[in-house]
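User: For my dataset I need records formatted as: sequence, then structure tokens, nothing else. Please produce one.
Assistant:
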Amino acid sequence: MSMNRRTFLGTTAATTALMGTPMILKAQASEYVLGASLPLTGPFATAGQLVAPAFALATKLFNDEGGIAGTPIRFVTEDSGYVPQNTLANYQRALASEGANMIGYFADSTGAMKLIAPELKGENARIMGSTSFASELADPATHPYQYMSGPSYQSQFDILLQNIKNEGGSKVAFIFSNTEFGRDPIEHGKATAERLGLEVVLEESTKPQGADIPTHVTKLAQSGADHCILHGYVTGVWPQLIGGARQFGLPTKFMGTFWGMEKLIADRVTKEAGPFLSGYEGVMPYRYFWDREDAPRYQQYAELSKVMFAGTPLENYMSTWAIQTMCGLEIAMKSFRDTAEAGKELTADNVAETLSGISDWDTGGFFGGNVSMVNNAIGTGRVYAYDAESGLFNPKSDWLSV
């Protein structure tokens, strides 16, 4: 029996009516796309260039595992120069070119996340991770589609201040960059310090690069602080501040937040200027990459890195910045896959609901135990201290949750 197009459509419509189901035929995507902006140039280019290979590793790993319900993924990454407006333009361009196939985006700064947030509405809504731990993003009521892969900056300050209290400290200085990133946890930190009985004796703002080190160190000396938290820096300023303080003879104990906890930077400073960073402490949400025992996901990364990055420094070491990015991508992939396995479309609303419900998750290595998303963040971390002789950051506290 022959069947022309009209007969086929009529039969299909009749069958659909008989079964009582709507006649909606939606084409399955041939691939899913995740966009990303990285600071490959500009003040934080070093970090961006170390993060970029993580996207290649993630593509290989996730697709080898079957992508999302059998559909492969592809990353589209562009340079932002660490300019939020550039990231917004990159996001809009990726959305226009990739359309519904683009199901998520990764941004490179707090400013970019805030700038793009109003765009995440209706059909333009996408799940969005980033390098940011901005405290205001940890609020699903105002940022339902944005999440962070660790504790907020406020939570990081809470962990450090509690550690200072535990060590018997009494006078604390806050030195931070004059950026939105740098200012984020300062007021919250002052409130936490007061609650813990610590006195904040200095609040000093600096340039994120090219800071006037002697002037800032002089103010720190005059404050009489026994502990100093440095925040809002990535590759520069924080080591110079510590070096200047040591030249000045200050006994102040220095501590940092996540972006000041990279081994490569500490090692380079030690090689060029001596071991004055020994004893420097800070909060790190994750295990370092060398801590791979009982961390099967890290072990997978290590095996792939040896092949994909052979002959480069990345062959045997993944930077903290790349680990943070991989954790963010793992959260997104878990949310996409769990949503698909539940038989739901990968709409931003469906994926956001899945993401916010992540509970008691064994990440395979990132954290010291199973974790849950609370207010679209993972409020756990650990204090580590740098040892210039071994070149390692060693744990100084248990895993702490906020």
